[in-house]
Write a structure and sequence with these properties.
The protein is an alpha/beta fold. It is about 40% helix and about 15% strand. The chain is built from seven helices and six strands, in the order E-H-H-E-H-E-H-E-H-H-E-E-H.
């Protein structure tokens, strides 16, 4: 097993489908998913192999969804972060965010900034949420920040990403049987190992994460060599 700590990313698909099987509104699936997410995050936090957990909460394309569902999602995210932020220091957890802040509710954007600032010196574990994030959008925004885009290098471009100091993603787990990368952190996951699971996200368990990490450790990553 490598000494390198793992950056694990999850694309939590299937919340709406899970809710539909129960005859619920789509956002009820998201509400249940947040509860499951809390349990999975705690498992990752306690696993010595994992240093960063990234979860793709809302994509740049998700604005196409029903406005009621989007509104409920933002409410759920804000409620979750307000509640969890109180315990981040006690759990030695740094919180950070990737994505746009100009389109989400102002109260959520302010909360994200405040919690990032408050936890920036924590080093035990990093919880990284991608809200209003898209890989293409992040690269475009990064290029727009460059002083001299004609002479861009990998290093100068990476330096203006949303979270330039995070390590690249090692594993991406996508639930619900979807086999697409869907514009997720295109740069940071360029050499990630992808694991596609048939389970809907509300059904995902710590055992599934454990088995995915074991699968990752069996793979040989050559990085082009």
């Amino acid at each position: 097993m490598s000494e390198k700590k793992i950056h694990l990313a999850i694309i939590p698909d299937g919340n709406r489908r899970w809710a539909k099987t129960k005859g619920w509104h789509p956002w009820k699936g998201h509400e249940y998913a947040i509860e499951n997410f809390q349990a999975l995050t705690e498992w990752c936090r306690r696993d010595p192999r994992i240093s960063v957990l990234t979860v793709w909460c809302f994509s740049t394309e998700n604005w196409k969804r029903d406005p009621k569902e989007v509104s409920e999602l933002m409410r759920i995210y804000e409620g979750y972060l307000r509640k969890e932020a109180k315990g981040f220091h006690g759990r030695h957890t740094r919180f950070c965010h990737s994505g746009r802040l100009d389109r989400i509710p102002a109260s959520l954007a302010t909360l994200i900034r405040d919690v990032e600032e408050d936890t920036k010196n924590e080093t035990g574990f990093t919880l990284h949420l991608a809200v209003d994030h898209g890989g293409k959008d992040e690269i475009i925004r990064a290029i727009q920040k460059l002083d001299d885009p004609k002479h861009v290098t990998e290093e100068t471009l990476r330096a203006v990403f949303d979270q330039p100091n995070l390590p690249d993603v090692d594993i991406v787990i996508r639930t619900s049987g979807e086999y697409r990368t869907s514009n997720f952190m295109m740069w940071q996951s360029a050499y990630a190992e992808w694991i596609f699971l048939p389970k809907l996200f509300p059904e995902l368990t710590p055992k599934d994460l454990e088995e995915s990490i074991e699968e990752f450790e069996r793979r040989m990553r050559r990085f082009g060599s």
